[in-house]
């Protein structure tokens, strides 16, 4: 497949915080872009810019050569791809699926197997980088599935991401994203506990961040989300309820592999509490609420 902008029709399904920006990069590059989202208003800026609206995900698939999805939960992925009249039913042979949702590795393998029977390649390509990375086109993209399909659509992925790595067969991208989320979960707790300690000890918390943010503790979470916490800014770059979903997937996969991950289990317990307190629509940095008494 030649994915030059002049001859490739791209479908994009799921226009949330990240999806809008990701689809915008594709549209800006000159591709014919077909879009669907459950809430049409979230697609309006893209439509105004020349994107073609469709009333169903299946309609997008029928009109596109490459179909990209980034929806909410594994059940949303399953319904979008496998339900009657959905993407798999309507897509034509020779097209390529790219699911960029953080979802189940097992489901990714199932979609790839069923797609292959129709002559369709399917990639699982979850991303990391949040709203900041999506807007800048600098996401980290972790890819599993057909290596030939990956090579064919890489120019599209490069419009959305900067660090793009192929990890192996179907499901490998999702497994890699689980590694990412496990690392974030533990680091979020460590960062929050560090700031809670600084605050309790009477230190100037911003000065603490400026000091430890360039040493061994340096991280995106500390240097980007840390200041947001100190500002009381819990606006979502990535929703808590979506992160709980990701941790649940990782825990289930770890249990299947008979792997004990106590830090992940603790992080999920604390995030569950923050969500139960009414903060599930806030950003992941709102875990600090569990420590800010």
TrEMBL record:
<comment type="similarity">
    <text>Belongs to the HIBADH-related family.</text>
</comment>
<feature type="domain" description="6-phosphogluconate dehydrogenase NADP-binding">
    <location>
        <begin position="9"/>
        <end position="168"/>
    </location>
</feature>
<dbReference type="Pfam" id="PF03446">
    <property type="entry name" value="NAD_binding_2"/>
</dbReference>
<dbReference type="GO" id="GO:0051287">
    <property type="term" value="F:NAD binding"/>
</dbReference>
<dbReference type="InterPro" id="IPR013328">
    <property type="entry name" value="6PGD_dom2"/>
</dbReference>
<dbReference type="InterPro" id="IPR036291">
    <property type="entry name" value="NAD(P)-bd_dom_sf"/>
</dbReference>
<dbReference type="InterPro" id="IPR015815">
    <property type="entry name" value="HIBADH-related"/>
</dbReference>
<feature type="domain" description="3-hydroxyisobutyrate dehydrogenase-like NAD-binding">
    <location>
        <begin position="171"/>
        <end position="291"/>
    </location>
</feature>
<dbReference type="GO" id="GO:0050661">
    <property type="term" value="F:NADP binding"/>
</dbReference>
<keyword id="KW-0560">Oxidoreductase</keyword>
<dbReference type="GO" id="GO:0016491">
    <property type="term" value="F:oxidoreductase activity"/>
</dbReference>
<dbReference type="InterPro" id="IPR008927">
    <property type="entry name" value="6-PGluconate_DH-like_C_sf"/>
</dbReference>
<dbReference type="InterPro" id="IPR029154">
    <property type="entry name" value="HIBADH-like_NADP-bd"/>
</dbReference>
<dbReference type="InterPro" id="IPR002204">
    <property type="entry name" value="3-OH-isobutyrate_DH-rel_CS"/>
</dbReference>
<keyword id="KW-0520">NAD</keyword>
<feature type="active site">
    <location>
        <position position="177"/>
    </location>
</feature>
<dbReference type="Pfam" id="PF14833">
    <property type="entry name" value="NAD_binding_11"/>
</dbReference>
<dbReference type="InterPro" id="IPR006115">
    <property type="entry name" value="6PGDH_NADP-bd"/>
</dbReference>
<dbReference type="GO" id="GO:0016054">
    <property type="term" value="P:organic acid catabolic process"/>
</dbReference>
<protein>
    <submittedName>
        <fullName>NAD(P)-dependent oxidoreductase</fullName>
    </submittedName>
</protein>
């Amino acid at each position: 497949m030649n994915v030059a902008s002049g001859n490739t029709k791209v479908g994009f399904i799921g226009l949330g915080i990240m999806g809008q920006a990701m689809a915008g990069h594709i549209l800006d590059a000159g591709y014919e872009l077909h879009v669907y989202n459950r809430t049409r208003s979230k697609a309006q800026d893209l439509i105004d810019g020349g994107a073609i609206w469709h009333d169903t995900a299946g309609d997008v698939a029928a009109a596109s050569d490459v179909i990209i999805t980034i929806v909410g939960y594994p059940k949303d992925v399953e319904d979008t791809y496998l339900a009657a009249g959905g993407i798999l039913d309507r897509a034509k042979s020779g097209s390529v699926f790219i699911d960029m949702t953080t979802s189940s590795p097992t489901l990714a393998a199932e979609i790839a197997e069923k797609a292959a029977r129709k002559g369709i390649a399917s990639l699982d390509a979850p991303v990391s980088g949040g709203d900041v990375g999506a807007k800048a086109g600098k996401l980290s993209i972790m890819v599993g599935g057909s290596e030939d399909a990956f090579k064919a659509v890489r120019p599209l992925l490069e419009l959305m991401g900067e660090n793009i790595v192929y990890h192996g067969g179907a499901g490998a991208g999702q497994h890699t994203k689980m590694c990412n989320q496990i690392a974030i979960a533990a680091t979020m707790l460590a960062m929050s506990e560090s700031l809670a300690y600084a605050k309790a000890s009477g230190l100037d918390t911003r000065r603490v961040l400026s000091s430890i943010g360039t040493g061994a503790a340096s991280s995106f979470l500390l240097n980007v989300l840390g200041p947001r916490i100190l500002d009381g800014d819990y606006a979502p770059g990535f929703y808590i309820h979506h992160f709980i979903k990701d941790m649940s997937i990782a825990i289930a996969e770890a249990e299947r592999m008979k792997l004990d991950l106590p830090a992940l289990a603790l992080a999920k317990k604390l995030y569950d509490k923050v969500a139960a307190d009414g903060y599930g629509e806030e950003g992941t940095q709102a875990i600090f609420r569990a420590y800010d008494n």
